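Board notes (copied after class):
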Amino acid sequence: MAKLWAIMKREYVERVRTKWFIVVTVFGPVFFGAMIIIPAVMAKRSKSTSEFTNTRILDATTSGAGQRIVDAMSRGQAPGSTLPQVYLVEAAALSQAESTATRQVMAKQLSGYIVVDTRTLGGEEVRYAGRNATSIPDMERLRAAVKEALLAKRLENAGIDSSKVRDLTFIPLRLKTERITDKGRGGSGAVSIIFAGAIAFLLYMSIVIYGQNVLRGVLEEKTTRVAEVVVSSVPSETLLAGKVLGVGAVGLTQQIIWVITTVVMFELREPILAKFGVTTMPFSLPEISLGFGVLLILFFILGFVFYSSLYAAVGASVNTEQEAQQAVQPLLILLVATAVFINPILLNPTSRLASVMSWLPFSSPIIMPLRLSLGSVPWYELLATLVGLLLACFAAVWVAARIYRVGLLMYGKRPTLREMGRWLSYSR
């Protein structure tokens, strides 16, 4: 036990003192916070400015449709915003007007132009050509403005006041969702989804990053012949366990720091965003019970032990970084396959897919915490998942220990699967 603790301490201290750990741990939450704040600020500023300020409307209808489109686009704009200019053209001269406008767009004198003709009045199409034609929000805004203008014209022809219709049909309805679990009612459904996705992402990234660290650490010790010296005084199983648990403690430390920092940044989001003129919806983080926190840590530890043991076995069985990249692909496929199913499970956490993926040992460390954060899971299903994952960990450690013991001292040709199978039968 003393040797195991010494190895764990060495692996832990050696990694938490590195600049890489400090930078990622400190600036990781700052980076993710910036990824939330910057898009919100950019979206706020984009709403206050129009992408059609330097746009020309070529109106060939003689019915005032172009001006109606401008009026529709003016709603929601900041006071004093520049709106598109309407050019009335004859239908016969429309082609020439388009050619002229195209040259002006190419010369950057215009940002684009809108063509309104008889087909537009018939509700068939409105044409736009410009530099922002690939902007989906801008095109949807233009489409909505044209539809509103056409509807206003049709209501006017029917003798109906379009402004009254608009006031009666505009209902700013907001949907508020609450979860009901076995413990009662409470918590926003949308916030729960975001929270669950964040948990799944953290677990996934920690297992991938620190599993790779275990692999590289084992490979480095093997190639530098340090392992030969260490194994002479420490059993290989103890060395493997100390390395996996030490690196796992590093990952757990980083996750705890990230969670605390994220909660603090979340509580400070309103004053920070208010400085940029961005308002936020009033919502709070879901309540995290002690039982859920314990289960979250337990699933992380078991998942990390499962994958890191296999990563260590891969590192001991190869001789170069190139061989390691090829040999580790099956493990990466399992992790990527788990990540692919996160979004469908977020959308429907009670589906059969969610249940099956939470039973499989390679995906349960990520999927089951995700399901637990979205709602209650039957106790027997949770217990079966934990037992299955625990057995899978024992199997992975047993296999990895035997491959690690032999492969750590084997050099030269990369072993085949048959040779690695024989290693499992070697006695100590």
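Comment from the instructor: The mean pLDDT is 79. Strands lie at 55-59, 85-88, 112-116, 127-130, 178-181, 184-188.
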